[in-house]
Amino acid sequence: MRKPPEPVQVIKQRRDEALSKLVGRVPYIQYLGVTFDRRGDELTAVLPYADKLIGNPLLPAIHGGVTSAFLEITSVISLSWVTLWDDLESGELEGDSTAFRMPKTIDFTVDYLRSGLPRDAYARARITRSGRRYASVHVEGWQDNREKLFAQATGHFLMPKPRSDKP
Amino acid sequence: MSYKVNIARQFMEAIPHSRDLGMVLTEIENGVATIMMPYDERLIGDPETGVVHGGAVSALMDSCCGAAVMSHPSNPGATATIDLRIDYMRSATPGQALSTTATCYHITRNVAFVRATAVDEDTDNPVAMATGTFTIEGQGR
């Protein structure tokens, strides 16, 4: 007999709890104030504007380092999220904190296309290759218009060792 | 402390994000700049080890490269990052300050080319290295 589908609220709660655990563990993400919107498995990172993020007070513009950090956070969380997803959905994640280990950045290259305006910014990452040890990610950042990117980046990451080589 | 370093320090203090991270410009002369950033628990990227997040290293690298461009003898009026690549060679040791030295090694009328190295107390083994290009806007002559 087929298993009855899970109630939608149970699914949403499980996914949102895992996401907030993943993001909430990292002090630097909290410091910048980055949050994540989730639609199914798709994540959009949000960087709410704050005065402390300014790098050029005359323009004013967001600090290039903040832009870079925001895109890197988006990449790392998106990668972790994809890695986590299958175990999360099959219920194998329960109480296993090693599942929340993050990939390590090998290199990260940012193109600054426009100056970051003093308002909220958004970013989405696309995982272009995900292997057992290495992953490549492309990430796009925008502010008012999705089509007008203010920055984009490519990075390579070292994936954490698999939680346990399942028997 | 030279007059130029003093001006540069005040410049750093005027950048809200750099000030918030406690960055201190310790050297600036002829296209070479050094900036120090103290260890801070707010910057932790890996809660299990206390290692600083790569993004915080980017912020330090970007500031330092920009400062190096501004101090080039050709006296650029202003600059903005075109692109910046960072290679993360090892984790920074938790509890130790990071120091970055950037060199603007070539400059044209429109573009500045910069290299930077970030170290912690183990200065022989860099934590990260960066290469970047920057715009040159208006000559301050």
Would you give an account of this structure?
Chain A is 30% helix and 32% strand. By secondary structure, chain A is of the alpha+beta class. Chain A has one domain: Roll (Thiol Ester Dehydrase, Chain A). In chain A, strands 1-2-6-7-8-5 form a six-stranded antiparallel β-sheet. In chain A, strands 3-4 form a two-stranded antiparallel sheet. In chain A, helix 1 (8-24) packs across helix 3. In chain A, 38% of the residues are buried. With 141 residues, chain B is an alpha+beta fold. In chain B, the strands form three sheets. A six-stranded antiparallel β-sheet of chain B has the order 1-2-7-8-9-6. Chain B is globular and about 50 Å long. Chain B starts with a helix and ends with a strand. Strand 5 (104-112) of chain A pairs antiparallel with strand 6 (81-88) of chain B.
Quaternary state, please? heterodimer
Q: Could you state the CATH homologous superfamily of chain A?
A: Hotdog Thioesterase
- Provide mean pLDDT of chain B, rounded: 91
In what range is the share of β-strand residues of chain A? 25-35%
By DSSP, the count of extended strands of chain A is 8
* Total helical elements of chain A: 3
**Number of separate helices of chain B:** 3
Q: Tell me the domain tally of chain A.
A: 1
Number of domain modules of chain B: 1
How many E-type strands of chain B? 10
What would CATH call the architecture of chain A? Answer: Roll
Biggest sheet of chain B, in brief? Answer: 6 strands, antiparallel
Structural class of chain A: alpha+beta
CATH H level of chain B: which superfamily?
Hotdog Thioesterase
The CATH topology of chain B is: Thiol Ester Dehydrase, Chain A
Low-confidence blocks of residues of chain B: none
> What is the CATH C level class of chain B, in words?
Alpha Beta
Overall CATH architecture of chain B: Roll
The shape of chain B is: globular
Compute the average pLDDT of chain A: 91
